[in-house]
Amino acid sequence: MTAKPGMGDQLVELLLTGLDDGNPAATEWCVVYLVSRSATNPDVVTVQEGWTTEEDHHRIFAGEAAQAIVAQFTDILAGEPTYGDHIPVRGKANYQTFPAPYELNSLNVGQPAPQVPDLTLPHPPLDPELQDLLSSMPETPPLDKQTLEMIRPYATLPAETAIPGHLPVDRQDISIASFDGTQIPITILSPIGTDLTGGNAPCIYWLHGGGMIMGDRYSQIDIPLDWLARFGAVVVSADYRLAPEFSGTTLVEDCYAGLVWTADHATDLGIDLSKLVIAGTSAGGGLAAGTALLARERKGPALAAQVLIGPMLDHRNNTASSHQFYGAAIWSRDANAFGWHSVLEDIGDGPVPSCVSPAIADDLSGLPTTYIDAGSAEVFRDEAVTYATRIWAAGGQADLQVWAGGFHGFDALFPHATLSQIARQTRSDWLGRVLAGAAARTPTATER
Q: Among 110, 116, 75, which residue's Cα sits nearest to residue 96?
């Protein structure tokens, strides 16, 4: 929206008035939003919002208090706001002046704005069904340290919500010591009605997604719960520490500590170590790959397989696909840069460890059989393809799937979409074949 000449300050002040808890209109949480102001024209102000619904807007803005604030804009605005501009009456704001023309996408306030992407760069289209589903969702604000705090609560679910009530699952929440002695939460999900005393159950060691900056051990837990239901697997999910509060190797070392704990307690968990699989999505996929590298280097727990779902593997953020998706994407190039900066901030100019950014590992030999998938319309597409290619080049086994029209995390966000169901079924069928092969190689009790 544009203020009348010289009235940009008044416009910003009025926008932020809605945040005052003493204001009679500030009675409901309506939206999380950002207010940004052009550095080249201080009378141009943009409000970007998310995490709300049109129904909520109509209901809240119909109130007298909200309308009283809206009425004050008449004397300030140079013209009517365009469709989609709303005046929030409650929320949190990050008011900063960003360098134009990248006003809403500065990764760090006070830092130089990133290079403006080539808006003409072509990219694969979305699957039509996914496109329709995605268009119904509100856009999220650009990621920075302020908006991260707003978004984080929406990346987690209570256990009671994340785990379907109809699924017969026994849940244990415990804490274990990580590499530095810090206690990290672990959740163990076991199928009820399955005899685990024989120690024959597969185990899925699960690492959640969230760009290494959000989420918890219940995020995307429905993916490994499908394998619990289908294969009778025990699921162990680790709550690794998050950036930017923790950075460097802390996250992957937490993940490795959880893997070692799982292997050390195999008898108590009722699992067969020949069927120990590490799996993760997005950031969790990258951390799973890094944990597998640590296990190989340290001669740690042997893994039957690694399942890397849309994995976040490469901090360099410089593939063709990383340049194709920016702005209002589920996980954009800008968001990816912020996530990696959060993880690597304390490393400074030092070398980035390969366990943190697995794509830079010199040697990908000796890894467990690997399943990698990604969407054709996502930032991580090319680094996933390259990682699989390098595993093959090192003499390893990898199964690669690139789903045409899939955006990042499509099958987690819309699991009932046709493409999502195909992707999940294909992934599960592959895992079933791996576990069947492991079972065929498992020695009998007398051989043990």
A: 110
Q: pLDDT digits over 349-404, tens only?
A: 789 999 999 999 999 999 999 999 999 999 999 999 999 999 999 999 999 999 99
- Of 295, 226, 223, 229, the C-alpha closest to 262 is 295
DSSP string, 94-121: -EEEE-TT-TT--SSTTSPPPPPP-TT-
pLDDT in tens, 45-81: 666 544 344 555 566 666 666 677 677 777 788 776 5
Instruction: Note whether 108 and 96 are within 8 A (CB).
Output: no
Number of H helices and E strands in the chain, helices first, is: 15, 11
DSSP state of 368: P
Gyration radius of the chain's alpha carbons: 24
Q: How far apart are the C-alpha atoms of 371 and 34, rounded to whole Å?
A: 39
Cα-based torsion angle of the residue sequence 336, 341, 347, 352 in order, rounded to the nearest 10 degrees: 20
Q: Please, are residues 3 and 41 in contact by the beta-carbon 8 Å criterion?
A: no
The model's pTM is 0.74
